[in-house]
Amino acid sequence: xxxxxxxxxxxxxxxxxxxxxxxxxxxxxxxxxxxxxxxxxxxxxxxxxxxxxxxxxxxxxxxxxxxxxxxxxxxxxxxxxxxxxxxxxxxxxxxxxxxxxxxxxxxxxxxxxxxxxxxxxxxxxxxxxxxxxxxxxxxxxxxxxxxxxxxxxxxxxxxxxxxxxxxxxxxxxxxxxxxxxxxxxxxxxxxxxxxxxxxxxxxxxxxxxxxxxxxxxxxxxxxxxxxxxxxxxxxxxxxxxxxxxxxxxxxxxxxxxxxxxxxxxxxxxxxxxxxxxxxxxxxxxxxxxxxxxxxxxxxxxxxxxxxxxxxxxxxxxxxxxxxxxxxxxxxxxxxxxxxxxx
Amino acid sequence: xxxxxxxxxxxxxxxxxxxxxxxxxxxxxxxxxxxxxxxxxxxxxxxxxxxxxxxxxxxxxxxxxxxxxxxxxxxxxxxxxxxxxxxxxxxxxxxxxxxxxxxxxxxxxxxxxxxxxxxxxxxxxxxxxxxxxxxxxxxxxxxxxxxxxxxxxxxxxxxxxxxxxxxxxxxxxxxxxxxxxxxxxxxxxxxxxxxxxxxxxxxxxxxxxxxxxxxxxxxxxxxxxxxxxxxxxxxxxxxxxxxxxxxxxxxxxxxxxxxxxxxxxxxxxxxxxxxxxxxxxxxxxxxxxxxxxxxxxxxxxxxxxxxxxxxxxxxxxxxxxxxxxxxxxxxxxxxxxxxxxxxxxxxxxxxxxxxxxxxxxxxxxxx
Lengths: 342, 367
Known about the structure:
The structure holds 2 protein chains of 2 kinds. Chain A has helices at residues 14-28, 52-56, 68-80, 99-106, 109-112, 142-146, 159-171, 221-233, 251-261, 276-287, 312-315, 319-329; strands at residues 9-13, 32-36, 61-63, 84-88, 122-127, 152-154, 176-181, 188-192, 204-207, 212-216, 238-242, 245-247, 264-271, 297-301. By secondary structure, chain A is an alpha/beta fold. Chain A folds into 2 domains: 11-192, 3-Layer(aba) Sandwich (Rossmann fold); 204-334, 3-Layer(aba) Sandwich (Rossmann fold), CATH 3.40.50. A 7-stranded mixed sheet of chain A has the order 3-2-4-5-7-6-12, with helices on both faces. A 5-stranded mixed sheet of chain A has the order 9-11-10-13-14, sandwiched between helices. In chain A, strand 10, helix 8 and strand 11 form a beta-alpha-beta unit. The longest helix of chain A has 15 residues, at 14-28. By secondary structure, chain B is of the alpha/beta class. Chain B folds into 2 domains: 3-333, Rossmann fold; 334-367. Chain B has a 5-stranded parallel sheet with strand order 1-2-3-7-6, with helices on both faces. In chain B, strands 4-5 form a two-stranded antiparallel ribbon. In chain B, helix 2 packs across helix 3, helix 2 (39-64) packs antiparallel against helix 13 (290-300) and helix 3 (78-85) packs parallel to helix 11. Chain B is globular and about 75 Å long. Chain A binds chain B through residues 33, 58-59, 62, 64-65, 67, 69-70, 72-83, 97, 100-101, 104-105, 108-118, 149-150, 152, 172-174, 201, 248-249, 251-252, and chain B through 1, 122-124, 127-129, 134-135, 139, 142, 144-154, 156-157, 161, 163, 175-176, 179-180, 182-183, 186, 340-344, 347-349. Chain B: One of its GO terms (molecular function) is oxidoreductase activity, acting on the aldehyde or oxo group of donors, disulfide as acceptor.
């Protein structure tokens, strides 16, 4: 962690905050490289790498051939030879050709070599829906990565967090899957540019409450906060936790909240079956059973391939579904939502 | 990043016939396209191949004694394994596969450490940075990309390092090989790709693997100089790899080499090669043995006599005995190792799981 002498801040979008984090990292450490498809001259399809190639040169920021396994595989070799690559997978589902390199090598080389090989690599993946994207552009692919030991998986939900988390991810000695909720790229916020004090693996309470704990992350955090505000009007004081880090999972922060509220809902965009919410619900039932007034509920997408853009609004969790879950939790025989049973 | 200028395809084409220096009968090839390595290099190649074959036989025996879970023999491929390794400079890196234990040993890694993977104690038994050898790669072709990335980083940092990556004929069908050849050619990375075409990917023969005239021909499509070499001729393999390393080090970019050879044994000790190939085919290849031909050549030239052969053989035997003795001890593994080296620091969840296992084990000890 680098000490910063004076604090600066700026009003930035999430895409702008990520761009600033990359620029600051490139400027501070010459081992950092940024590469991928269209990240050079174009500045990335979401402009997250805008201007970096011009500023840092083609040796530091460059376009690769169109090949995701090639991008991750060569990043592994570069990291073995002392560099710190930050690579971009253009969209969530485009990362699947790199899956073997990620699961078989990126996640395991430290372990295979008893710690001799360290791979400080960040794989940035714009993920999730809500932007009217066509197929293969909207997947919530987080659990493929969280299920793989050796990877860290993080996802920011705000511009400030995007800056801080990406700086920490680049500093991390472990490989980090950095999931960027693309529906939040254009949200603006004042970002403290020295904000690197929070740790990479901690959840944060975004709204305090006493009646129910809403647990969310990334793209779904927005509607979760909206739902908490709407619930307040109906008399329910909902606490909202932003997980930020999906692997490792900050059980302590979540369990402390649930032990106070006795009720929990996990909200995410991904399909519910074997989704991230299933893990959260399982860990809460194992550690908070005697504090729970009702079963842990999940609000997520349906168990379907990500739908066509004109139908996605029916698939994605919305405020009403979260409110409905909160309502159900208030009954003694709280029942699960009906949209899911596999 | 430099982009290759457009060059005539013929520049990248391999020869019609494999390049060679020493024929199967030990006679020098007439009008060779390569320069014969110096006598002392040939003698080192011979000695290392004899040691390599003895190591391979010892490892095979260790599977029969239950000391190794599995062993993929490289018998018959000594020229490819040793010829290439002895052409590397100390600062160069090797990216081997699971069949290349012989090459890793020739690179200077302790044979016991090389066999740690196959004994089942840990996934890689050696520190890659000690002898510049990446972990032996089990998934096919994934190591090709690691080699390109490593070499690219070396070039970026201005280091004089070349990466040699070993792969087999089956691996050339994998997407990663395509991506690695393409990246390396576009980036002009200092990499040498050595395909040891040993005829079979487990049971699938080359004719069902590719329709290309040769695997070396694949280099043309990427804009990469390509070489077809007699993979049972250690002198020729050494010469082409040395040339490719020198070109890469001088900024000339990558080379694809196909070494035409044969896997004399089954895929591993668990495989039964008689189900998919004739004994006659194996026997025909045994007449092209890489050690016998170099031995004959060196003897004919007066560089090797009976006394020297006996000394070399005795030394290989001593090495094998030492390996056998060291492998015949039961290793003691620490269960807590399960949780080490997953992350730089164990996560809270891993610490809890480690405590659970410790409690379980101490409970078991009380019973």
